[in-house]
Amino acid sequence: MSRILVTGSADGLGRAAADALLSRGRQVVVHARNPQRAKGLDGLVARGAELVVADFTDRDAVRHMATELSDGAPLDAVIHNAGVWSGRAVMPVNVIAPYLLTALMPAPGRLVYLSSSSHFSGQPVLQGVDWQGLSPGSYADSKLYVTALAAMVAGLRPGTPSNALDPGWVPTKMGGPGAPDDLELGHQTQEWLAAGDEPQALTTGGYWYHRRRQQPHAAVRDEAFQDRLRQVLAEETGVELG
């Protein structure tokens, strides 16, 4: 039975992915940012999900979560789903947390990072980025960085499929009730990349939209940009990604 971590699984796409994976007989580790949010996961925990709690704006909490999970059974996949749309938490939650978890935890069988079509509007500029969240961050930039992180990990760890995906503009709390895209298709691609048996689901370095591989922003595949991003994040966190 595969064991899969889904970050940010208290609601939205993460909750839908965790629910579907449990229904398919997977062992799922769900995540909430605080005990109050964790109460909303009681139904999934009652069905067998494990629970971890960590505020991704707090680097020490992320490190503790990485240690807690590293001490448990191996993970077959990690879906880095947690994300915020605006405000000071954008860079800590959307970039620093998945970077730290990737760098600090033993490599799982597969890695899945939530991107967005907004990453095409991101700027591949790393000077002056407020990684600590002292001021509001750019969502588009954060999604460009995390999409490049997925591609970077694919190169660093050729034995671990690492992919990014655009779930579409879906009607979650973040997307709003009028979002035009399909919520089911949004979370199904996460599940497919994390646990699917088809040959395409086992490839690496892709950027996906509804199970179709797409061309990302040119900077995502730029190895020089990847190297700069890797160096900047290592210096910022004190943790090397290898």
Uncertain segments are none
* Overall mean pLDDT: 94
Our estimate of the beta-strand percent is 5-15%
Instruction: Please state how the strands of the largest beta sheet are arranged side by side.
Output: 3-2-1-4-5-6-7-8
Note the total helix count.
Answer: 8
Distance between the termini: 27 Å
- What helical percentage do the residues reach? 25-40%
Count of distinct strands: 8
Q: Radius of gyration, rounded?
A: 16 Å
The string of secondary-structure elements, in order, is EHEHHEHEHEHEHEEH
Main beta-sheet strand count, sense and barrel state: 8 strands, mixed
Shape: globular
Question: Which structural class matches the secondary elements?
Answer: alpha/beta
Describe it:
- It is globular and about 45 Å long.
- The chain is 39% helix and 14% strand.
- Strand 1, helix 1 and strand 2 form a beta-alpha-beta unit.
- The relative contact order is 0.15.
- It has 242 residues and is of the alpha/beta class.
- An 8-stranded mixed sheet has the order 3-2-1-4-5-6-7-8, sandwiched between helices.
- It is built from 8 helices and 8 strands, in the order βαβααβαβαβαβαββα.
